[in-house]
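Translate structure to sequence.
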């Protein structure tokens, strides 16, 4: 059992370790920022992060879940076990317009901080390098492979505007489940003027699918979304299209409702095929994104430590999710929080050159390191407070069961 003296020594060790690595963490972030690499090509960034942790005594496994640019670094052993998630992929044509160079050092800094407390309190800490957040969702693949299994808590941070906040209020921190769908119709080509009666119009089938989805929208829950585009619709106006294809995204507040809507979209497409005589190909994306189950007891600890460290943030908005994140799949496996925090003093457009500048700013680095401290201190709470672990676990099981 941890004594009061041990806890105070552990807390001091956490803060001192992050302070001691301040310049090194900023240099690592600047390297990632100056060498933007898109999803699954984060060779330099991943290696730099993994090497950084290995040089500080972490045991590092590279290429986890068959993802060459993913890694798992750990220190300590047994339970409790706290994990921090880092990202480092950039946006094509933009660079680090989502601030993933800061996400990288938030997780690494927190991991190094908590590792410094292990001699005082025991337990285990892991840092996970999670690639391709902006594309296929590396965390989805890693969660499916069981990489996060056994964690008592998973935490990470995402930079934002002046409105960024810790999702500690019930109903905040939401994200939509999301499933990609490819719908293709195979028809029969014919001359559109001279011989249309011998053709089967694949494009008509796809258009009727859009019409059916438009009708369905009247009868779905407010937070659900179905959107799509025509990716192929024929080659010439005087030829009956023998092939047409569309790409769709189906989003909903829970993965269960998302799958219900996907089934309804499939039924619409089957009806369109029956109406037109075209043959249907219906394919779900291999890896759907799940909705986000934010663990509020854990988020409240992060909020408390940020307040104590002097980073006062606004209350989070309590509203349905609008986007989707691969964090959702992690949150169905282990208790999870991805907190947000500001790197600018105003509201700006995300995924932009303004964010690229903010991600390499004094304010960005200062707030990121403060957040790393708060995450590490929340991790210390998880390692040492059995009642908190029970509360976190109960909230996780209750919310996951409610969304089944």
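Result:
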């Amino acid at each position: 059992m941890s004594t009061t003296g041990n806890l105070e020594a552990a807390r001091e060790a956490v803060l001192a370790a992050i302070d001691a690595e301040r310049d090194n963490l900023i240099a690592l972030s600047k390297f990632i920022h100056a060498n933007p690499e898109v999803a699954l090509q984060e060779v330099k960034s991943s290696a730099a992060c993994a090497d950084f942790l290995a040089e500080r005594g972490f045991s590092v496994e590279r290429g986890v879940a068959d993802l060459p640019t993913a890694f798992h670094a750990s220190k300590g052993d047994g339970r409790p076990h706290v994990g921090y998630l880092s990202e480092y992929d950039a946006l094509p044509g933009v660079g680090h317009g989502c601030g993933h160079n800061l996400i990288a050092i938030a997780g690494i800094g927190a991991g190094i901080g908590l590792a410094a407390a292990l001699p005082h309190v025991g337990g285990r800490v892991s840092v996970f390098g999670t690639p391709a957040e902006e594309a296929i969702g590396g965390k989805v693949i890693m969660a499916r492979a069981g990489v996060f299994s056994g964690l008592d808590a998973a935490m990470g941070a995402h930079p934002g505007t002046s409105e960024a906040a810790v999702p500690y209020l019930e109903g905040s921190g939401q994200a939509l489940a999301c499933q990609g769908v490819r719908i293709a119709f195979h028809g029969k080509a014919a001359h559109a003027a001279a011989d249309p009666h011998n053709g089967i119009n694949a494009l008509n089938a796809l258009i009727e699918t859009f019409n059916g989805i438009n009708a369905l929208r009247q009868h779905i829950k407010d937070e659900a979304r179905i959107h799509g585009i025509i990716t192929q619709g024929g080659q010439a106006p005087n030829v009956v299209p023998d092939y047409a294809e569309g790409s769709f995204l189906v989003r909903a507040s829970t993965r269960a409702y998302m799958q219900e809507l996907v089934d309804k979209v499939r039924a619409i497409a089957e009806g369109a095929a029956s109406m037109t005589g075209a043959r249907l190909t219906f394919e779900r994306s291999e890896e759907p994104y799940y909705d986000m189950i934010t663990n509020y007891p854990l988020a409240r600890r992060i909020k408390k430590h940020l307040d104590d460290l002097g980073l006062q943030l606004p209350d989070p908005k309590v509203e349905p999710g609008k986007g989707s994140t691969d964090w959702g799949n992690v949150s169905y496996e282990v208790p999870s929080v991805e907190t947000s925090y500001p790197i600018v003093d105003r509201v700006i457009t995300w995924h932009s050159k303004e964010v690229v500048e903010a991600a390499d700013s004094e304010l960005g680095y200062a707030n990121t390191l403060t957040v790393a401290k708060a995450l590490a201190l929340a991790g210390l709470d998880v390692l040492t407070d059995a009642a908190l672990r029970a509360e976190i676990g109960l909230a996780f099981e209750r919310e996951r069961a409610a969304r089944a």
